[in-house]
Amino acid sequence: MMGQCGITSSKTVLVFLNLIFWAAAGILCYVGAYVFITYDDYDHFFEDVYTLIPAVVIMAVGALLFIIGLIGCCATIRESRCGLATFVIILMLVFVTEVVVVVLGYIYRAKVEDEVNHSIQRVYDEYNGTNTDAPSRAIDYVQRQLHCCGITNYSDWKNTPWFKESRNNSVPLSCCKPNVNNCTGSLSRPRDLYPEGCEALVVKKLKEIMMYVIWAALTFAAIQMLGMLCACVVLCRGSRDPAYELLITGGTYA
């Protein structure tokens, strides 16, 4: 009786976990897409394209979880030993992949600061103030979104070719605080400008984005471990316990 109860409970939890896998697949794909979209806004501040590898992998894992959930549900309800074995093997492979994502996430998260420090001066030097210029759009976007100005502060603009060529002692309007009327970006009115530089805030933002990937991978890796455990319980007990029964029929062993 205890064996039957244990198997039925494991199967019930397993079916429920497969439903969670479908939800997890959508969440992981969303997280990966969010990282891609957000990094696209900051791609001028880092040169290492491999930084996006964790996001690519986690989107692939999300797509695979849809298939895993289908296999798991069908194998559990039909009590297919082959299906459950396949389910466990795929889960193990995905679990290992998510561990790799976590490791890569931490590695690239540590490299973000060096990447930004290496490239941010070049991006500011390429600024020309036009919307058709990609570096200019990137800087204006970052300064408005992060409420910052310059690299360490607004005075950094004095060293840029754009500032020297314009000769009006002003910084871009994207440095202006939104609650200030008639802001011209003039350095003679520093209170109208964002006081904080963008370098530290860009680094912080990119590290936060990478943490989303890391936490998503860790969370669903833990759920997958529970799924593997339940599947193994059903497989092991079902192979030697005559109480092994169909979950959907509610049949009893006579």
Question: Could you name the key traits of this structure?
Answer:
254 residues; mainly alpha; 6 helices; disordered N terminus
Account of the 3D structure:
The protein has helices at residues 2-42, 53-78, 81-125, 134-146, 161-166, 198-238. The protein has 254 residues and is mostly helical. α2 (53-78) runs antiparallel to α3 and α2 packs parallel to α6. The longest helix has 45 residues, at 81-125. The protein is elongated, with a radius of gyration of 27 Å.
The SSE order reads: HHHHHH
Structural class: mainly alpha
- What's the shape? elongated
Low-confidence stretches: 1-7, 240-254
Distance between the termini: 11 Å
Q: Roughly what is the average pLDDT, rounded to an integer?
A: 79
Rg is 27 Å
The largest sheet, given as strand count, sense and whether it forms a barrel, is:
none
Q: Give the number of DSSP strands.
A: 0
The number of helical segments is 6
Tell me the β content.
under 5%
| Helix content class | 55-70%
Keywords: Glycoprotein, Membrane, Transmembrane, Transmembrane helix
Organism: Carassius auratus (Goldfish)
Subunit structure: Interacts with claudin-11/CLDN11 and integrins.
Subcellular location: Membrane
